[in-house]
């Protein structure tokens, strides 16, 4: 697989040689924002894990999260990936340019980790260290992902000002956990 680099739209708020910035509003590209940041302005290392999961799903699918998939429905990439996962049609997400060279088990592992990283609840997401272990290990037993955040496309600008919170899906349990080393 070829790595891709994404600009999440934050570079433009920085001046040259500036290493941090403070804003009074949510800044970034909505397709990569964690729900807790996009809706409530809360940011943590698990917000970065969410963005990483979106990028993983984009790389393995060759699709962007900022478009809709399946013409009869308004599905984001996350919703499309989740639908295929639940219907056991995971390989349909694979970027056609990968189909001849990609190891199927590697693809399934990447999709599983990508879905784990985009969980609605930050506590359900792995840390980056655990995500790296899951991606690089052929023997680690991976948890079963729950329904990811933003499965139903909605207007985030109006949701951000609303007091209602998105519902988290709690319909799957972990098969096993990966111990996090130091």
From TrEMBL:
Transmembrane segment boundaries: none
Domain Protein kinase: 1-150
Keywords assigned: ATP-binding, Kinase, Nucleotide-binding, Serine/threonine-protein kinase, Transferase
Region (Disordered), start-end ranges: 158-182
Listed GO MF terms: ATP binding; protein serine/threonine kinase activity
InterPro entries reported for this sequence: Kinase-like_dom_sf (IPR011009), Prot_kinase_dom (IPR000719), Ser-Thr/Tyr_kinase_cat_dom (IPR001245)
Pfam families attached to this UniProt entry: PK_Tyr_Ser-Thr
Cellular component terms per the entry's GO annotation: plasma membrane
Biased composition regions of type Low complexity, renumbered to the chain: 158-173
SUPFAM superfamilies: Protein kinase-like (PK-like) (SSF56112)
Domain of life (superkingdom): Eukaryota
PANTHER family referenced in this protein's UniProt entry, alphabetically: NON-SPECIFIC SERINE_THREONINE PROTEIN KINASE, RECEPTOR-LIKE SERINE/THREONINE-PROTEIN KINASE SD1-8
Name of the molecule in the record: Protein kinase domain-containing protein
Organism encoding this protein: Vitis rotundifolia
């Amino acid at each position: 697989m070829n790595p891709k680099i994404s600009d999440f739209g934050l570079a433009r708020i920085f001046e040259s040689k500036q290493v941090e910035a403070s804003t009074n509003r949510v800044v970034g590209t909505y397709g990569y924002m964690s729900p807790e940041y996009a809706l409530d302005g809360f940011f943590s290392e698990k917000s970065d894990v969410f963005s990483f999961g979106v990028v993983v799903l984009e790389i393995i699918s060759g699709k962007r999260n900022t478009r809709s998939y399946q013409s009869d429905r308004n599905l984001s990439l996350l919703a499309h990936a989740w639908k295929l996962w639940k219907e056991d049609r995971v390989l349909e997400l694979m970027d056609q340019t990968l189909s001849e060279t990609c190891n199927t088990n590697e693809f399934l592992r990447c999709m599983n980790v990508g879905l784990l990283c985009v969980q609605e609840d930050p506590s359900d997401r792995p840390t980056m260290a655990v995500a790296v272990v899951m991606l690089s290990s052929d023997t680690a037993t991976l948890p079963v992902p729950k329904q990811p955040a933003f499965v139903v496309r909605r207007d985030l600008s109006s949701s951000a000002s609303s007091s209602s919170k998105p519902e988290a899906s709690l319909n799957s349990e972990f098969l096993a956990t990966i111990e996090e080393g130091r």
